[in-house]
Batch of 2 targets.
Target 1
Amino acid sequence: MNAPILRVEGFEKHFQLHEQDKLIPSSKDVNLEVYSGKLTALIGPTGAGKSTILKGIYRTYLPTAGRLLFTAEDGSEIDLASADEHQILDLRLKEIAFVTQFLHFLPRQSTLNVVAQPLIQRGRSIEDAKDEARELLAAMKLPMRLWEISPATFSGGEKQRVNLARGLIAKPRLLLLDEPTASLDTKTTERVISLIESLKYEGVAMLAIFHQPELVDRLADDVVEIQPPENSNLILEEIA
Amino acid sequence: MDKVLQVRELSVVYGKGCASCYKKTGPDFNSNICPDCGSVVAAHDVSFDLYRGEILGIMGESGSGKSTAVKCLFFDEEPTNGKALFYDEDQQYNLFRLNKAQQRRLRNHRFGMVYQNPNLGLNFDISAGGNIAERLLMSNVSNYSDIRGRAVSLLSRTEVLSERMDEMPKNFSGGMQQRVQIAKALATNPPLLFLDEVTTGLDLSVQAAILDLILEIQQQSQTSMIVVTHDLGVIRLLADRTLVMKYGRVIETGLTDQILEDPQHAYTQRLVASAL
């Protein structure tokens, strides 16, 4: 078997809330591996800290402990938990993408621009990037009449597809998926599934959280069960 | 990745200063006034790097020292301490060691500044086009039709009607004055742009248009920018990384999404919580 593209060792995250004088544990003792061309699924009850792990890897959350060893395209190994901010920004631009259930987009931008953005940021010409965005949106069967308007008024399913297209367009080496099919109907979900399958075929490594267990069965090569950290629902230790 | 600016241990003290100025001020003392000598420590120990094409946000309430830091870099104020290196076309400038002429040269050619108050950035006694011409003349463009042509293209880029370029800025609305100021700052294609509370006090729709314009400029020209603001929305929209300042000190720095979703410092947590 190939070496993993991402190795998570002893990941831990807690939040220190100064106003309330509380320590909120969110994830503890997480160990997992993600491989190119394979999908690792995170399962576990609500509140187990599954999303926290993804956000920790993307560095939206600052990990409390542990190592997140990512093997970059040039072969170097980077600990995402402690890497310099510029290094993280560079990886986000070129190698790691995150698709959540919520669409964060720049207001007042057409859908086509929103989707093309990651390619433009990587230095592709605007026309080129838009062409690829059109192709991807067509593959996801997003009606063409929506392409030139902002996703602000879209339905949940439409937004979700824009979100996915934006995450996939730059062909990241590692893709983090947080319930990418959460608000989709069966037909659209099938399209997303075949898209994920073709990404696997192209060698993209994926770490995913799925709402529906049958998607885990169909797509996951590896399943990691996450347990909520101990004491997470007790009154938490007071901090000085 | 190319580094454009490296700032280390920048400090600004107003007043005579004494040995306890730095020790007895800051967030831990809830004050930036030295209790021993009464000097104001506007900024202390501010350090950061800025890369090409990057937008760095400096966030904090009024009096936190966020503008002071930027004003030093633009030579509007003199630092008490610290070092800043500006990297430009294989050259390296030790900003606070340059003589006045060298500073003026950088200000006129390689830096752009947009102030909250257009009065500071624009000359209100000459026309909008004249303001841009002034900056071009200072950087040795002297052919009349070149200047006129460049002014028209800059003003159209910032969506100021070129028919109005011969009017005085005082006849313009606040949003339009701000756009003329941005056009003026961009006149020499500076690799480094300072934006000090540029949308504060403007209508929401005008704010949006100006922020869109700033993003467009950053994307088209790979301009590095430092955006000073107290507005979390501006930070969220523009900045890749953010410094949070309080009482003259940097209390937290991080990726902008991390600062907003997982703030570490008590003050930042309160700030983010009040915005949501």
Note: The mean pLDDT of chain B is 91.
Target 2
Amino acid sequence: MTEIETVPAAERARGEGIAARVLRIALTERVVLLAVLLVVVVVWFRVLGAGGYLVAPYDVRYLGNALESMVPFALLAVAELFVIVSGRGGIDLSVGAIVSLAGMAFGFMVGVWEWPLLPSIVGCIVVGALLGAVNGALVAYVRFPALIATLATYYAYSSLALISNGNAPISTPPVVALHSLTRNVNFPEPLPPVPLHVFTILLPCALLAWVVVSRSTYGRSLYAVGTNDVAAAYATQSVARTRFTAFVMSGLLSGVVAVVTVGQFASARPDAGIVGNGMALPAITVAVLGGVAIQGGIGRVGGVLVAALLVTWLNAGMLLAFPEGAEGSRYQLLALGLVLVLSALLNTVALRRYGRLS
Amino acid sequence: MTSTATTAAAAPTRRRPRVRAIEGQEIALIGVVGLLWVVLSLVTDTFLTTGNLQNILFTVAPIALIGIGMTAVIVTAGIDVSVGSQAAVVMVIVALLVRDSGLPFLPAVAVAVVVGLVLGAVNGLLVAYGGIHPIIVTFGTLNIYRFVSLQIFGTEQVAGVPPTLAPIGGGAEGKLLGVPTAWWLTLVLAAGMWCYMRFWATGRHLYAVGGDAFAARLAGVRVRRRQISAYVLTGACVGLAACILIGSGGLVQQNVGTGLELRVIAAVVIGGTSIIGGRGTVLGTVLGALLVGTVSSAVTLLSWPSELAQLFIGLFILVAVGVDLLRERRRSAR
């Protein structure tokens, strides 16, 4: 191991064969690996469909429709990226609870107080950011371990969300009308209809997140703090403020997801983000699959988005392959768990073998 | 050379720090729980009844029991969020065996513990040899174990489970001297674990692993073996807790155990165990579980909305960890 490390990288690259190079790129360039897997998944289900094993065609139209369920998880996975990259055990278990509570706030603004749409959306996102700021203050300034702080706020926020309207959803006519936010947009054939919020919410948010993470001074500071906070502090980075902002970004994105879920359900449900295993777990899974290292300092927005797409289309395919009752969603659990553990193992192998991970 | 010689000479004369039988956090917790009990028995006339106290102890038992293993895991700087799904797997297997094959009490408990051990061992091996962060491993196995349990369930829940496990259940059979046997079981195991972690060499090694795994390895601690043992122990505890949860039988639903992990971790953390590892006791965990159980019961008795209990649990976590952080900061500033 140590012998390899003394050889310069360039020299190593020249000495390796094609197979070794392909392996290295597949292991260290997570986006490449995920893109290959994505193609494999789509082709696999197409073949299954051609062989008559699926109950409905796994075609372009179906894949376009499936994007609807991708939006919340892609956004929350990007939210987890901010927090996990910020280091020191950064993790946000409370995103699902924020989605619930901000969604209820949104429901009250639109459905009860009858605010116009735009101020309500802004209000919902602000509520999300404020809830994230509470997490951030606890973790960055009071120095709670992130797991504990967000576990506590998970409880607190979900409790408040459930109490806020006596455990009942808000589905007054103005809230039901919000469903138009998530309607399908039709394109000329052969393009499939695609949910509107993929364009109005997911893509702009992803682009903004990419700019912030990869093209701004804050982004550089985030990676510096996440990689080594002592070194970052000596390099005049404000460690606490960088971490605080990461949690605010996570809350803000959760607020955006709250708008989306209220639109999708046509109702502000107090348990939207916490029912079952909640939204935090799948989000963390997608982030890790997308190449975010749990130790902090490593991870890219592009990888997370491709991972979200992969999980979405894999899940959509399994719903067609296992149509009986809840069997499809059951196999989704298995796939999610296996994919998470295997991708983490892959991260370990890549780090041990090449000492880096993109 | 000279400096080492002087410290070595000075060491025997220095007074050894006294080993305290009980930590400050635990005293505080006993105070809070005691205060709550006094206030609740004054405010409501239903709290201080045998039935209610038995009920609190019975509902707390599985959480405290899993907390025993979870304390060991968190002390080694790990975490296990898959306990809820583990419980689901054990419960469905045991419930089916008891109902369809008429398995008697002791074999049923043995099967539960063995299944728990296996599930825990998978977690332990992945953490120790896979080089994966424990939270990622157990998030993964949380999903996988849930799949396994649903697969065994088939299409429907398990109904009509006979009361084979009633001796540790919540009914009249499950009482010994007026206290639920489940609680006696928890107390005995907690006492055993407390002694193990305090007086046994390998028990002390758990703290060493959590404090600094690298230094522990250099000092001759078998780090991987200790990590695996903590997860395996948690699995065994989950097995026992699952038997308590099946108890006097009846219905085992497909969503059993969801959210259990968070309640257990909350109890452990409120009990003063540091999530960073290297510090914590089983006594604190049992007290933390009692506090959580008392609060949940109080919210019901005061006829407040039951969701309010979660808010209090969240606040208790913040207060418990916040006080601990302040003490730690004062200690390091000194």
Note: The CA atoms of residues 84 and 258 of chain B lie 5 Å apart.
